[in-house]
Specification:
- Helix content is 16%, strand content 30%.
- The chain is of the alpha+beta class.
- A six-stranded mixed sheet has the order 1-9-10-3-2-6, with no helix packed on it.
- The radius of gyration is 20 Å and the shape is elongated.
- The two termini are 21 Å apart.
- The N terminus is likely disordered.
């Protein structure tokens, strides 16, 4: 497993040992690339997760923040929604068979409602290396790991904090911090709410409901007490 702090750039491809890697699990060797079969995305309380399902030995993975995502073959810029870009390199791995047929099944995962993920793009399948880019809401912590049974590459991107210290979030605010607060309201209240980075009337009303449920002043403004109550409610 490798953790990447905002701004850090790992120099080596890492295998990323994980908790369910079986002893003696095969590792990819030169000439034996894993083949990409499916890409999935999920939302957790504190981070968003991207999973690449592969067939074959476990490859290495490298994650890093880049200023611009470029196609690894053509070199042209690939625009992504979001305020930062995470580049994911997987090697040795391919997304095609020996006769050139694509192996990736189904559409790319939908990212609506994600607190961190904003966009996803294929940036190359060249010389046994797959490159993907993730547009994210903010430059936060990133973790990459590999799993077996079946072979998977996992990339976790942490949510931005919904404010720190005495900072307040209130109606009219926008940004990654608001998206994180909205997602936490979804989890804490068990109700639908748009995670759209805009603190509008519905987010304010849901904030008031959360505050009432936790014995706080129901003013619809997110401050230190509301954030602490939310952390406690979600076990963060």
């Amino acid at each position: 497993m490798t953790d990447v702090l905002p701004g850090a750039t790992p120099d080596e491809m890492v295998p990323g040992a994980a908790d369910d890697v079986a002893p003696g699990a095969p590792r990819a060797e030169a000439g034996l690339p894993a083949r990409l079969r499916r890409i999935r995305a999920g939302r957790n309380a504190a981070f968003d997760r991207l999973v690449l399902d592969l067939d074959g030995p476990v490859p290495g993975v490298r994650v890093q923040y880049v200023d611009v995502l470029r196609h690894q073959g053509r070199g042209d810029e690939i625009p992504l929604r979001g305020r930062a870009v995470v580049q994911v390199d997987v090697h040795p791995a391919t997304a095609h068979t020996d006769d050139g047929r694509p192996t990736l099944e189904g559409p790319l995962p939908g990212l609506a409602g994600s607190a961190a993920f904003r966009d996803l793009a294929d940036a190359g399948d060249l010389e046994a290396q797959l490159t993907w880019g993730i547009g994210v809401a903010a430059r936060t912590g990133v973790r990459a790991s590999t799993l077996t049974g079946p072979t998977r590459v996992v990339v976790d991107v942490w949510h931005a904090e919904p404010g720190t210290g005495t900072r307040l979030l209130r109606r009219g605010d926008s940004g990654a911090a608001v998206a994180t607060w909205q997602w936490r309201l979804v989890l804490a209240l068990g109700r639908a709410l748009d995670v759209d980075e805009h603190f509008g009337s519905r987010t304010e009303a849901s904030t008031r409901d959360f505050q009432r449920a936790h014995g706080l002043a129901a003013d619809g403004v997110v401050g230190p007490a509301s954030r602490a109550a939310m952390r406690h409610a979600l076990g963060l």
